[in-house]
Amino acid sequence: MPFIKVDVLREDLNRETKQQLIRKISEAVTSVLNKDPHLTHIVINEIEDDNWGYAGEQVSALKEQGFSTGKKINQQ
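Below the sequence we write its predicted structure tokens.
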């Protein structure tokens, strides 16, 4: 019985986005590990920016300096 924890920053995650994430993870576990999706448990933990650190700084402080947690767009 797989138990999967996903830690994400608390931002722009609405119910539909979480449902899509849960669905896609379940599909991957079913496909890759051949596990029954009815026995696969997924927990999403939303973490405040102040409680997440990267490169020795809080994410909240990095965002104030222009750091983005969004997908980077290739600029050519």
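The mean pLDDT is 91.
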